[in-house]
What does this fold into?
Amino acid sequence: MNDRTRRRREHREASTSRRQDGRVGVAMVGMAVVAWWPAFTLGAWGDLFFDQLLAVWAAATAAFVFVLVERRPVGARLLRAFLLLLPSVWLALMFFINDEEEDLFVFLIDLGAILAVLIGLPFTLWLLVRIVWPEFGDETRVSTKWLIALVVVGVAVASFLLGLNHKAFLTCEDFTESGNSAPLDCTPEPEETPDPAPTPTPTTSAE
It folds into this structure.
C-alpha cells in the first residue's frame, strides 16, 4: 500500500469518526434539553404539566407508527413498539380515574406519568436519531451509549435538585415573568425601601 492510498484511507476514517462524534453530540445535547424542564417542574411544583405529558404521547405515537412500518425484522421492532405504546396506555387509563379511586392506584398512575415523561422523551429522541442515522446504533460503542445515558440522567437529576431549591436563586416574579405560575413556596421579590424624605432645613428669621 503506497503512501497516497494510506493517506486517503486515514482521511476517510477521520471523516467518519468526526461524523460519528457529531451524531453522538446531537443525541446527547438533544436528550438533555428535552429532559431538563420536566425534571425541573417536578422538583419545583411537585408535578408535571399536561403539555409535557401530551408531548410525550404525540411523539411516541408518531414513532410507534413508524416502527410498525419500518423495514426491519419483526422481533427487532416489538420491544420498541411496546415501549412507545405505553404513553397511549397511560392516557387511556386517565379517562377512568376519578376522585373516588384508591390512593395507591392514583399514585401508580402518577408514577407512570413521571416515568413516561422522564424516560419517554429521551427514548423517543433516541429513536428519532436512529431513524435519521440508521447506522448510529451499530457504529456507536457501548461505552459511548452509557456516557450519553449518564449525561442525560445527570442533567435530569441536577434539574430536579434545582427545582427543589428554586427559592435560593429564583423569585416568584421570575416564574410569572416567564409565563409560568409561581410555586406556592416561591421567594417573593424583595420590596424596595423608599428613600427617606429630605429633612427640611431650619430657617432663621432676621432680627
